[in-house]
Design brief:
With 449 residues, the chain is mostly beta strands. Helix content is 1%, strand content 41%. Strands 1, 2, 3, 4 and 5 form a five-stranded antiparallel sheet that branches. A four-stranded antiparallel sheet has the order 6-7-8-9, with no helix packed on it. The protein has a four-stranded antiparallel sheet with strand order 10-11-14-15, with no helix packed on it. The longest helix has 6 residues. The two termini are 24 Å apart.
């Protein structure tokens, strides 16, 4: 790999499928030398016929596409040059995207309500006086931080105690309504207490207020609760335990803890990724066992757990962490009560289908890395990487994968991609080593596991 080849690396997001199963939408991003940034747009990919994928948006950095359950709206995140990602929505039939948020630190994850009328999203709230909340006060002029906890930084985010991630709820506006027009002249004078820009974006209601980060928000199957993960328990700074919580749409009551509720005092979990089943009867989540101490994480794989949709009862573990590790991805609701999960094994990531009884089927085996998946309208689509591509989209058919895109065509045409060979060398522990080699004498890469 040479520096001049970096702009050929087209990364593909997890897909979203229109509910009628006719097409998928993905985000395709790449490094751009001129912009000195990652840029990308959304692409629509037909699932049948001979039509080619086509670019759907023309933003600077458009990511995380998601169709509403009724298929009328496509939500996504858009970043302007030097800006934070904001939530946008566009009619699925086509039109101009409408900006829904203007958060100081941008928007993280988001999800539609089952009736497609509302959106829940996460966003960090900066402490006043930091992160540009006061004009003229840059990072070098901020007040010193007093660190009195063990957990105060996260890779990629930096300090966290002064910009907690909270959850917000907004009503989806009519996307064909009269657009907001900035007032001019005397009409633009700010003489009252409300900002001139009031009404430009729909009002978002804050649902969580704890001194902790809330993550992975999703509506419950009946649309009456927001499910999310957080560490809100006493002593959370001293262990690795996290839980699935639910909070009402008003946010008026304290969140209800749904996991680690005392049924097994000998085994605490780090729970994440709450996902209701498509039929609305079950609630799945991922969990890593931490023993009774809540800190024993070494060599412990991530497993799939399930609860009744109302969280009444004891969580059941559906996969064996001794042989399956689901730490690479989240959970995708499949047909009925089944879900799709991502199993990390020997340098690959497989796509598994698991039902409520723990029966599983491998939908996409290695040697490849499945990066994301979606299921809707009787179709299953994945984004993946393998020895010949950085990222492509494929449909999962009975006969295997049917590739739908060729975003890495230029990469293969203009560079030398080394084939991957797996060799097992004699040793007392029978260590497996994976080596990349090429007839063009590209230096081999070796990874042992």
């Amino acid at each position: 790999m040479k520096p001049c080849d970096l702009n050929l690396l087209q990364s593909v997001s997890a897909p979203t499928i229109h509910p009628d199963g006719t097409h998928a939408v993905v985000s395709v991003t790449r490094p751009d030398f001129a912009a000195d940034a990652y840029v990308g747009q959304l692409w629509t990919v037909p699932l049948a016929g001979a039509a080619a994928p086509r670019r759907l948006t023309r933003g600077f950095a458009d990511t995380q596409p998601r169709f509403s359950p009724d298929g009328t709206v496509l939500g996504f995140l858009r970043s302007m040059p030097g800006g934070k990602p904001q939530l946008y929505a566009v009619p699925a039939a086509g039109g101009e995207p409408v900006q829904l948020t203007d958060r100081k630190m941008g928007v993280g994850a988001f999800n539609f309500s089952p009736d497609s009328a509302q959106l829940v999203f996460s966003s960090r709230i900066p402490q006043h006086g930091r992160y540009g909340t006061v004009d003229g006060v840059g990072p070098g002029a901020e007040d010193p931080r007093l660190i009195s906890t063990y957990k105060y930084r996260v890779n990629g985010a930096g300090y966290t105690a002064d910009k907690r991630t909270q959850l917000f709820l907004l009503d989806l506006p009519a996307l064909d309504a009269e657009p907001w027009i900035a007032p001019a002249g005397r009409a633009g004078e700010h003489t009252g207490t409300e900002p001139v820009s009031r009404g430009r974006f729909p009002e978002a209601r804050q649902l969580t207020h704890a001194d902790a980060d809330a993550a992975a928000p999703v509506f419950s199957a009946n649309g009456k609760q927001i499910l999310f993960t957080a560490a809100l328990h006493q002593g959370a700074d001293e262990d690795l335990v996290s839980d699935v919580y639910s909070v009402s749409l008003t946010g008026s009551a304290a969140p209800e803890r749904l996991t680690n509720t005392g049924n097994r005092e000998d085994m605490l979990l780090a729970a994440s990724e709450p996902t209701p089943s498509a039929d609305g009867n079950l609630l799945y989540f991922l969990g890593q066992e931490l023993s009774a101490s809540g800190t024993d994480f070494v060599a412990r794989n991530t497993a799939l757990y399930v609860l009744p949709a109302d969280a009444a009862g004891t969580a059941r573990r559906l996969t064996d962490p001794e042989s399956i590790d689901l730490a690479e991805g989240g959970i995708v609701a499949g047909e009925g009560s089944a879900v799709l999960v991502f199993n990390r094994t020997r340098g690959s990531v497989e796509l598994l289908q698991v039902d409520a009884d723990g029966a599983r089927q491998t939908l996409v085996p290695g040697p490849r890395v499945v990066q994301g998946a979606a299921a809707a309208g009787g179709a299953v689509v994945v984004s993946y990487a393998d020895a010949a591509t950085v990222g492509e989209i494929a449909a999962v058919d009975d006969g295997g994968l049917r590739r739908l895109t060729d975003f890495s065509g230029r990469l293969r045409a203009e560079t030398r991609v080394a084939p991957v060979l797996e060799e097992t060398h004699p040793s007392r522990t029978n260590i497996r080593c994976t080596a990349g080699s090429s007839s063009r004498r590209v230096p081999a890469r070796t990874r042992c596991c």
